[in-house]
Amino acid sequence: MERKIIAILRGVTPAEAVAIGTELVEAGIGIIEVPLNSPDPLDSIAALADALGARARIGAGTVLTVDEVEQVRDAGGTLVVSPDTNPQVIAATKAAGMASYPGAMTPSECFAALRAGADGLKLFPASLIGPDGLKAIRAVLPAGTETYAVGGAGPENFAAWRAAGATGFGIGTAIYTPGLSPVEVRARAEEIVSAYDEAWA
Questions:
Q1: Is 84 exposed, middle or buried (0-12, 13-18, 19+ CB in 10 A)?
Q2: Gyration radius of the chain's alpha carbons
Q3: C-alpha angle with apex 70: 67 to 75, nearest 5 degrees?
Q4: Using CA atoms, how far apart are residues 37 and 26, in angstroms rounded to an integer?
Q5: Hey, which residues are catalytic here?
Q6: Are 196 and 169 spatial neighbours (Cβ–Cβ below 8 Å)?
C-alpha cells in the first residue's frame, strides 16, 4: 500500500536531511517535502533525491514562484507543494514534469487549481476547513480528486478526515521539528504510519 502521507521537514538542514529521510522511508513514509523556507533547502532536496529518489518522492514545499519551481527541478525534486493556488506555478510544475499539489481552502480555489492542471489539492489550513468542510467540498469535486489535509490533521483524527473524503495527509511538526534526532523522527513516523494504517484498514 502506498501511504499518502507527506512528511514536511520544515527547518531541516542538509547535514541531517538524508539520515532523517532514511528513517522516514524505513518507517513506511514515501513522500518527503522540504519547505523552501528551511536552511539551504535546495541542498537538502538534492541530497535526499540522490540518496532516496529511487525509494521515495522528494520535493519542495512553500513554493511560490516559477523560478522556485525551476530550482526544485534542477535539484532533483519531483514534487511541488504550495500554500496557495497560483496557476503560473502549477503550469510551470507540470511543464517541468513534476507533480503539483497547490494549497486551496475554498471550492473556487480547488477548481482553479484543478483547471490549471494540479495533480491534487493541499487543503490548507485543514484546521479551519475541518472534516465537515471537506465533506461539503468533496461532494462537488471530480471523482478521484486527491485531497491532502495539511495543518490540523494527525493520528488523533485520521479516521474522521478519511470518512470526510481525505485521501492523504501532510504532517509537519507532529513528525519533525528542528533538533529532533533521526531516531526520534523514526518513532514519530511509526506512530503516524500505524494510525494511518488503522484508519485505512
A1: middle
A2: 16
A3: 130
A4: 26
A5: 33, 122
A6: yes
* Three-class SS state of 189: helix
Count of CB atoms situated within 10 Å of the CB of 47: 21
Domains defined along the chain, listed by start: 5-199 (3.20.20.70)
129/134 Cα distance (integer angstroms): 6
Q: What is the DSSP string of 65-127?
A: SHHHHHHHHHHT--EEE-SS--HHHHHHHHHTT-EEE-EE-SHHHHHHHHHTT-SEEEETTHH
Q: What is the DSSP letter of 142?
A: P
Integer Cα distance of 131 and 66 in angstroms: 32
Angle at the Cα of 127 from the Cα atoms of 187 and 60, rounded to 5 degrees: 60
Q: Are strands 31-35 and 57-61 parallel, antiparallel or unpaired?
A: parallel
pLDDT tens digit sequence for 42-72 = 999 999 999 999 999 999 999 999 999 999 9
How far is the C-alpha of 33 from the C-alpha of 15, rounded, in Å?
16
Q: Quick one: which of 129, 130, 132 has its CA closest to 109?
A: 129
Distance CA 33, CA 7 (A): 6
pTM (2 d.p.): 0.97
Reported as a single tens digit per residue, the pLDDT across 79-104 is: 999 999 999 999 999 999 999 999 99
The residues with which 81 forms a beta bridge, in sequence order, are 101
